[in-house]
Amino acid sequence: MDKKYGVYICTGCGIGDALVMEDLCAVPEEEGFSVKTHPFLCGAEGLELLKKDIADDGVNTLMIAACSRRVNYDVFKFEGCIVDRVNLREQVVWSHPRSEFPALTEDQKDDGESFDRLQMLAEDYLKMSMAKLEKIDLPEPYKVETLSRKIMVIGGGITGISAALDAAKAGYEVTIVEKESSLGGYAAKMRKQLPNEDPYENLIPPVIESKIKELEGYDNITVKTETIVARLAGEPGDFIVTLKKPGEKIEFDVPFPLPEEMKFDENGKELDVEDQHKRYLEYNEGKLDILQFDPDGEKFGAVVLAAGWRPDQPEGDEFAHLGFGELPDVITNCQFEEIAAKGKVTRPSDGKEAKSVAFIQSPGKGDDDADFKYCGSVTSLVALKQAKYVREDYDDSKAYIFYQHMRTPGLTENFYKSIQQDEGIFLTKGDVISVSTNGDGMILEADNTLLGEKVKVIADLVVLATGMVPVTVDDPVVNMAYRQGPSFREIGLFDGFCDSNYICFPYETQRTGIYAAGGIRRSMTMEESMEDATGAALKAIQCIESVNRGVSVHPRSGDMTFPDFFFQRCTQCKRCTEECPFGALDDDEKGTPKPNPSRCRRCGTCMGACPERIIGFADFNIDSVGSMVKAIGVPSEDDYYEPPFRIVGFVCENDAMPALDIAGLNRLVYSADVRLIPIRCLGSMNVIWIKDALAQGLDGAFLLGCNHGDDYQCHFIKGSELSEIRVQKIGEALSSLALEEERVAQFQVAIDEYDKIPKMINDFVEQVEALGPNPFKGF
Amino acid sequence: MTEDKTAPANGSILVVGGGISGLTTALEAAEVGYEVFLVEKNPYLGGRVAQLNQYFPKLCPPSCGLEINFRRIKDNPKITVLTQGEVEKIEGTPGSYDVTVALSPRLVNANCTACNDCVEACPVERDNEYNFNMDKTKAIYRPFEMAFPMRYAIDAAACKGSECGECAKVCKYDAIDLDMAAQTQNLKVGAVVWATGWEPYDAAKIDNLGFGQYPNVITNMMMERLAAPNGPTKGKITRPSDDKEPASVAFVQCAGSRDENYLPYCSYICCMASLKQATYIREQYPDAKVYIFYIDVRAPGQRYEKFYQKIKEDENVILIKGKVAEVSEDTATGNITVVAENAVTGEKVSQAVEMAVLATGMQPTAANAKLPADLTYNEDGFIINDFEKGGMFAAGCANKPSDVVTSNQNATGMALKAIQTLVRK
User: Fold this and answer.
1) Residues of chain B numbered 94-153 and touching chain A (CB < 8 Å)
2) What pLDDT, on the 0 to 100 scale, is given for residue A97?
């Protein structure tokens, strides 16, 4: 595109009052840019001015120096034009009042000692924007060659079937892949299901049968039983899937990463890369590399992972005090369900009627009031349901439920209340201390109950409310042919559940196009699983349609850019492949990355990681940001007797930048010697920018990004964490230049901590000032 | 080559309510490619979560996710946002509805640059509902710092109108239109998602817990505002009677919930909310004691259980299993005494604290104001979804009490249910 530039400066909202407009306009004018000012650029007249220039003069590259890009986003949007917003309002005049940053008096203007910090700030931002505009382009969308709109659902239980039906009803083709010989999963193994509407009294027959029947009505649903995924290759919109029978060994079985212990020799020394690769090949003998696509593979656009759960099987003497493993009539809730589904409730030991059944919700050791592992409200509800079975089966039966916390949240409380009405069901908080034999039956002892300090109950059967383990704990299931590994997610936060770490975005996934639902994500009731399935189906459809338009999915929804690689200069260091939070890149045997743009979420982590600086986006690249840094004026002693310091801040545009805006909105004041550059995520921060900044005489550089750790807030998982590691490494490089490490720092800030940002910035400025000016200044 | 087997994205969806559920439904549908109208009765989007200081269990600010969602709206031409709008009438059948939306005048037009000059000029104050009336704003106000849309609004009930007109005089951008008239807008949509959300249960109705009687008895939603950096106390938790830093705080769980006299159901979020609020207090006041009186601690699932176990480790957080029967005030000190029966020991517990927080529950908005549509409700005012019939669906807390994660799951799914209606048409 032939760029025709236009610079438009708004003088409203206090900008014109605080800044010397003539001098400001002179900055782009000196570079040959046409400059226009308007007192109300976002108003009808101002806008007319812009539109006229676009229409009549062919202006297609615009700098709008006015307010933050968070506002008037719809006003300053022009089809086919590159627009850069310079934030003179929130970031310049509102956060740097003239009362603190006074304008120069007539006498000061040419005295060689005085300078106008605020004016310098505004002028630098204009220079930075000009530099950026020269380096960016309009994006063109990436399109996969052949788009498949088919959805693969892994798992044919209640969740998978629901997801399939919901996607099919929206017109999409679906294939259900189920490893067992029939559909239904655990939902088909139950006697009854929880009620889900008023009056919440009676258990209802399982809905699974009718759901399976409903599948028959959809000719766009294919069911493949006794089938599992051998490998899933490719990218959203163009996944290539090899299916196989369980137990089969085929060459398209996905290779697994080398287990940690195999990376070391017999002396415990880590093997070098080549030896590790050799072992990796041995370990995966008979399996083709991930980049070998199966010519007979089936194409899919997106995947719903609904492979479900298995009952937690207590191990060893984990619950010896409860008699589990020792007494035959102490069983888990799943075993109980199996018995109850077959007929009346009986004891496994001798098949006798179990008329007195005790349900234990929490294993209760010491002060521990936690439920069994992998539990949720489901296990509380299941205990109530199963108590009801006991009551259904025998008129003179009794059920006892010992809990620490009856967890029946929301409307499920209504079911709990109906159970409380049954005089044959005894509910109490209590620490179960022991279960032992008592003649023909068992005796259960509990402390601290609501019925008295110590309670003994005679039971025919004791049922432990053990939890639901996501099957991904045992097996990757999706078997992705991704260089980062075959598993859905491995961040170690959720005990193997494929859950999202975002409260606001429950379907956020680190594997674009693959959405987990149901028991694999969290312990859920059937009703919750069905609802979850609908959400996951929507996300799968949305991903396909986004790929079709060549745009990113959440959180950079609609972004048309994607990373472009200049492969000639790639040194095969693999850092981009390793650091990508979404596993978008697969390197070949030489280490050259293969980008899979529709897996990509456009965060730029690869660009930040690349030491050769060969990765960039149309509107955001090493050169565009680097040029902004270079455009920052660095006054030296040649200019002023005591030149001001210059510090650059790279700021996460998702959270920290809005927080800075709010600081401006609240007229909070911070140093005017700092120049801020928004970046997509701190993960996209390439250290070359910091090195260059210091080499050109800037006195310091800082990064402002999201909190990291287990409760990370980074929208791209690890951006701020990765940049912190990079910053630590920079320290060494700095010492070799005889520059202090303290000139570079990173700060974590949440979006609502706007009130803390000024101090963060000012303290850093002070710290840098204490070190004195950068010795490279002026060279 | 594209194999195009799907119905094109035609037909549009109306989402009523711009809280987190409504935002989610609207965005998820629009990002598939459908046209969406999002109608919100407040002058800003975000609903209840915009009033929260942090989310449990991550203790992260809701404005973080809201900001991303607002950006998604800004970048998506498929979404039309109508603030200060309420659905007046809906006629039609699944696939084809005629909707009338009543729009209250904002009295501030699109020229507003949010420069704040008007606020300085405005002579009238009003109670700030956003902060549960714990402070005041001018009659012309910015709902809150991160509000979307970022435009000021005038509270017509408080504003003295054109006889005053001080704001209009100082506005450089001709953004104030005190004669702006109410409008109606007609929409044709194929499906409707009701994400009308919830109201905090009116604590004044609970006669034994002292709310409204004793100033130092507050609700959990008020606590959110007190702890929020943009709240009435700039994030410093102090008690209302004398702005004292509370050395002890009691949380009264199930204040109105799980009680046939008030809300028979469990409100889902209050246990986790109180555990979370205990961290607010403990962080600000390292010596403060927190007493939580509960029936059951409902912290279900791996993440919530982990959070609960972490809070339990704090020696200054004391959990007592017992329902609070009585709350009284020492008039001299303003301190509050909470009386409960310890359910396990049977002892009567009487705990004096400097401030008490009622963990009030959620009541569906539709419980107090029925919606102008053919919907089925349960006894408590939650909308029951009829997927067979289709066309109209309830999402989030309009459908059932739930936390943000569950609401958003549900709201994402309802986007698909709405799309199904359009495809079936």
Assistant:
1) 111, 113-115, 145-146, 150
2) 98
